């Protein structure tokens, strides 16, 4: 396996994992080339956005357009921009840390209508698959810490849901990583064994290298191996809404349909900063960017450092042959020969609708189209994209027993797809900390399509450093920290340089 001699943090240098004389690749950067226009950015789309399956389920919920007061406050202690899981959790921990401080959460559109409300509903901790990639970029210690942090994030999310009896369709069980041909199985095996041999925790991972047994366990006809460990699926909007309702009860202020356009110094001397919105200005001492893919539109220093990209998710209603007692009972990451991945969430404790996300081969066509039309880099109004849906159809018909022969009646089959905007970070890991040169401005963003497996530790970690605690107190990997050196390194990186990434 290719390796870098250096173990010091730097701009990511491992775009994929390969073996000599093996055509397969593992974990390509979002199954697409590095974006050709790394400076592209934009604000959230203000009309015509598609409705994810999660948002379709809550159309009568008054939280969608909640405004705590009719008029926008002119002043507050802290402004948090973004009401997804990042902004909502940061507000929760901010309230617990400084109950005396006033907090205003701004949302450009409906509550939680960005990436959190548009993903495939997984909280799946990466427990081995990206280790080799991160080891190349950041060294063994940090790579293991990233894996451990994702496991800690999953445990924190599940504990919160159970302790607070959150109605969000939580499922806990074995998730399967399944390579689909011999070459990618060989690369996966090499990655897993290297992680194990270097001290990574693998005792909780059940590994099957016998193809026949892998097919039996996974129910994927072309499975060549199977890696199983505990993960979760859930309704992400409902989880975020539960947390925000508790925030509101405890004094957090929420203003939806309020687009933040700029942050500047307060020339009137009332506070440190002024957040300019289309409904008026808000003076404050602290600003938190929980804006993920849209961060560079507000903060110019992040252009090319956090880049938005549309990503598709498909809702599939299984036929009778895969319903009832025959329904899928596990979630999946299906590893494709060219580095792509199908992320599959069958919602087996809820309605049985199957969510198919990840980076399927049809996503490449979407990426090429966006490269040609960069104004669509923030277009979450895409729906029923045939190139993506046909790849999903081909996969399930080829790999799931009984699907190809099934006669699909009305209401069954490949019902709907929608786009969400992921925030590609230039080095593949999120940014947590204070913006360099801007005291009182903080960020938790750039989650690279993997936020659900990071935010339940990243958000409280950010609040700890806001409170003056050391980075070590957060328990987060060192490479997540936003530092002047990291930002400068990424800003000066050559356009098109290899990046570390997550799929």
Walk me through this protein's architecture.
Residues 77-453 form the FAD dependent oxidoreductase domain. Residues 1-47 are annotated as: Disordered. This is FAD dependent oxidoreductase domain-containing protein. With 503 residues, the chain is of the alpha/beta class. It has a domain at 119-131 and 172-231 and 307-425: D-Amino Acid Oxidase, subunit A, domain 2 (D-Amino Acid Oxidase, Chain A, domain 2), CATH 3.30.9. 27% of the residues lie in helices and 20% in strands. The protein has twelve helices and 18 strands. The strands form three sheets. Strands 3, 4, 5, 6, 12, 13, 14, 15 and 16 form a nine-stranded mixed sheet that branches. Helix 2 runs parallel beside helix 7 (236-249) and helix 2 (85-97) packs across helix 11 (455-466). The longest helix has 24 residues, at 140-163. Residues 1-14, 28-36 and 496-503 have low confidence and may be disordered.
Detail the poorly predicted runs. Answer: 1-14, 28-36, 496-503
Element pattern in H and E: HEHEEHHEHEHEHEEEEEHEEEEHHEEEHH
Q: Report the biggest beta sheet as strand number plus sense, adding barrel if it closes.
A: 9 strands, mixed
- What is the structural class? alpha/beta
Mean pLDDT: 91
Short characterization:
InterPro entries: FAD-dep_OxRdtase, FAD/NAD-bd_sf. The chain has 503 residues and is an alpha/beta fold.
How are the SSEs placed, and which strands pair?
Elements: H1 53-56, E1 78-81, H2 85-97, E2 103-106, E3 122-123, H3 131-138, H4 140-163, E4 171-179, H5 182-197, E5 206-208, H6 211-218, E6 226-233, H7 236-249, E7 253-255, E8 260-265, E9 273-277, E10 280-284, E11 286-289, H8 295-298, E12 306-317, E13 331-335, E14 341-345, E15 354-359, H9 363-372, H10 386-399, E16 413-425, E17 431-434, E18 441-445, H11 455-466, H12 484-491
Parallel strand pairs: 1-2, 1-11, 2-7, 4-13, 11-18
Antiparallel strand pairs: 3-6, 4-6, 5-6, 8-9, 9-10, 12-15, 12-16, 13-14, 14-15, 17-18
């Amino acid at each position: 396996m290719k390796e870098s001699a250096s173990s010091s943090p730097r701009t990511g240098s491992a775009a994929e994992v390969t073996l000599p004389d093996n055509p397969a690749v593992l974990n390509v950067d979002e199954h697409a080339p590095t974006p050709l226009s790394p400076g592209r950015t934009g604000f959230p789309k203000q009309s015509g956005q598609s409705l994810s399956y999660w948002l379709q389920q809550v159309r009568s919920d008054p939280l969608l357009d909640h405004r705590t007061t009719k008029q926008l406050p002119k002043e507050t202690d802290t402004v948090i921009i973004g009401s997804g899981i990042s902004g909502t959790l940061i507000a929760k921990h901010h309230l617990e840390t400084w109950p005396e401080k006033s907090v205003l959460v701004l949302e450009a559109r409906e509550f939680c209508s960005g990436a959190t409300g548009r993903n495939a509903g997984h909280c799946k901790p990466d427990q081995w698959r990206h280790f080799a990639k991160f080891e190349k970029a950041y060294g063994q210690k940090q790579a293991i810490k990233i894996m451990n942090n994702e496991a800690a994030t999953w445990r924190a999310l599940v504990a919160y849901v159970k302790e607070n009896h959150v109605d969000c369709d939580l499922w806990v069980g074995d998730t399967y990583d399944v390579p689909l041909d011999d070459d990618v199985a060989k690369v996966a095996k090499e990655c897993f064994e290297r992680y194990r041999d270097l001290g990574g925790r693998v005792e909780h991972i059940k590994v099957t290298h016998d193809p026949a047994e892998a097919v039996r366990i996974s129910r994927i006809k072309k499975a060549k191996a199977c890696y199983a460990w505990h993960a979760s699926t859930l309704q992400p909007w409902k989880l975020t809404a539960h947390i925000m309702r508790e925030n509101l009860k405890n004094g957090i202020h929420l203003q939806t349909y309020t687009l933040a356009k700029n942050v500047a110094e307060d020339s009137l001397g009332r506070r440190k900063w002024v957040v300019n919105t289309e409904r008026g200005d808000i003076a404050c001492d602290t600003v938190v960017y929980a804006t993920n893919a849209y961060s560079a539109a507000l903060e110019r220093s992040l252009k090319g450092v956090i880049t938005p990209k549309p990503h598709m998710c498909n809702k599939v209603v299984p036929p009778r042959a895969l319903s009832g007692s025959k329904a899928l009972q596990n979630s999946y990451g299906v590893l494709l020969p060219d580095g792509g991945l199908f992320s599959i969430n069958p919602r087996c404790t809820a309605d049985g609708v199957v969510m198919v996300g990840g980076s399927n081969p049809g996503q490449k066509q979407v990426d090429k189209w966006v490269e040609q039309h960069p104004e669509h880099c923030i277009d979450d109004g895409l729906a029923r994209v045939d190139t993506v849906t046909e790849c999903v159809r081909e996969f399930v018909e080829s790999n799931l027993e009984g699907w190809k022969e099934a006669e699909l009646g009305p209401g069954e089959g490949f019902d709907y797809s929608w786009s969400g905007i992921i925030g590609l970070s230039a080095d593949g890991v999120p940014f947590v900390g204070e913006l360099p040169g801007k005291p009182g401005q903080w960020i938790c963003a750039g989650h690279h399509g993997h936020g659900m497996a990071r935010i339940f530790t990243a958000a409280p970690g950010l609040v700890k450093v806001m409170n003056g605690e050391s980075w070590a107190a957060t328990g987060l990997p060192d490479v997540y920290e936003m530092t002047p050196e990291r930002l400068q390194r990424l800003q000066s990186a050559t356009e098109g340089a290899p990046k570390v990434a997550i799929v």
